[in-house]
Amino acid sequence: MAKKFPLNPKHPERICWGCDRYCPADSLACGNGSGRVMHPAELRGEDWYLDWGIEPAPESPKNAKL
C-alpha cells in the first residue's frame, strides 16, 4: 500500500516530497547533494490538486485519493 499523500500539510518545508521516503529536509536519504523537492502546494497553491484531477480520499479528506 502506498503512503498517504497530504493535500495541504501544515509545514511542507520540513519534508522532502521527492519519493516515498518523505525525509526530513535536513537529512535527505537520496544523497548526491540533492536538494529538497517542494510539495505541490508550495508551488501551485492550496488548490493544486484540482488542476491535477486528484480527489480527496473519502475516509481521510486531508489526503489524496491515489
Number of strands: 2
Which blocks of ≥5 consecutive residues have pLDDT under 50? Answer: none
CA-to-CA gap between the ends? 10 Å
Spatial extent as radius of gyration: 12 Å
Arithmetic mean pLDDT: 87
Largest sheet: 2 strands, antiparallel
Number of helices: 2
What spatial order of strands do you see in the largest sheet?
1-2
Shape: globular
**How do the helices and strands follow one another from N- to C-terminus?**
HHEE
Instruction: Output the structural class.
Output: alpha+beta
Question: How large is the share of residues in beta strands?
Answer: 5-15%
The percent of residues in helical segments reads 10-25%
Topology overview:
Elements: H1 40-44, H2 48-51, E1 55-57, E2 60-65
Antiparallel strand pairs: 1-2
Task: Walk me through the structure.
Helices cover 14% and strands 14% of the residues. With 66 residues, it is α+β, with helices and mostly antiparallel strands. The N and C termini lie close together (10 Å).
Give me some keywords for this one.
66 residues, two-stranded antiparallel ribbon, 14% helix, alpha+beta, 2 strands
